[in-house]
Sequence to fold (453 residues):
Amino acid sequence: MRYPITLHVNGIPYPIEVTAHTSLLHAVRDEVGLTGAKEGCDDSECGACMMLIDGRPVNSCSYLAVQAEGFAITTVEGLSTGGALTPLQMAFLQEGGVQCGFCTPGMLISAKALLAQEPSPTEQEIRVALSGNLCRCTGYDGIVRAVTKVSQSTG
Amino acid sequence: MSTYTNALTVEDAIAALAQGARPIAGGTDLVVGARQGKKRLPESLVGIHRIAGLDQIEENGDGVSIGALVTHQALVTHPLIRKSFAGLADASAIVGSHATRANGTIGGNVMNASPAMDTGAPLLCHGAMAVLKRSGGTRRVNLAELWTGPGTTSASADELLIRLDIPLPPPGSGSAYVRLQYRRQMEIAIVGAGAFVTIAGGKVTDARIAITALAPVIHRAEAAEAALIGTDGNAAAVEAAADAAAAAARPISDVRGSAEYRRAMAAVIARRAIETALRRAHGHDVTIPASDSTFGST
Fold:
């Protein structure tokens, strides 16, 4: 059975159809057409699929699309406005926080969730908040530096 | 053919359960387990995450009620939980990742009935009662009777866990949960232990000690409790209690550790939990989560 639902992604309503078991990740990538969030492990270990639901970080590979109807979903495409990168995205570039780029959308989303909750996190708090995100290039130091930089500039 | 309905009230949910649907909230066990191939997703699901009121932590005169939809993140940031139920905060603080804690609920955690769940031992030690509701009525069951085996409970398929009721500890009490972990986050307990103690007049008047990932269900170790009650909580008494807790273990060997290793570590982890509970009962501040702050202590 297919269910007609409306997903509100980055402020835009998308009427789509999904099955009861369709993941939020597949709904957003395949039906909405936003491919920033990635499928890595498909079981909540790697964090490449991280999105925000009403500000909460969620592994979208393991969250049902039907459960997300009506909530505000944010993907990496929704971070910048008008084509300008956010300070967090700029810091990732400046600090070498982007290598192959596969983990970057999830890292940015987890970092955004942290900074919304704690604008001036310690390095330990940053590492805890990013511990559900794996970087296959092992470029963690640059990523942590990038988040630290933003927290200092705004904190 | 898979089906899904949204429940907006407890009544909606229990009506759907009576029709054979299974409940889903944060999905952090149910969907992740299906992705890992442990168990297929139920064909018929009812989303309970929109039910109003089940996400509240409410203080009443003699206790606290924790709604089934309360997340680990909400527990670990709640002042009363951190102060009076620190062992529960120790546990919720280290469940999964920040995303797991933001979505994973205490109700899902309890009903998933994993023998390695972090919140199980502190809930048992604090005497939490599960409140189960079905169309025929409501019943309260203690967790020792709820958990019947790895992943199984005594709840019938048409019962919904709506909240946990936990009595307020008397003055002079402290609790703690400590797990053996290879990493601090994204981890499942190799071995864990919860402890709750009450001290009055310099003596331990009440002690509850429970062991995690050491048996088919999380359970209390009565011999360990007896070894501590009536003493002043000195090192020898703590050692005896920790050894008794380890003696109650019936561990398995699996990918996270061998039975022999688990048995050897059980006494160490139980001792750290008991020591931390005693320190907190004496009014000392031990940073949450205790698994991190007691790491490396002998």
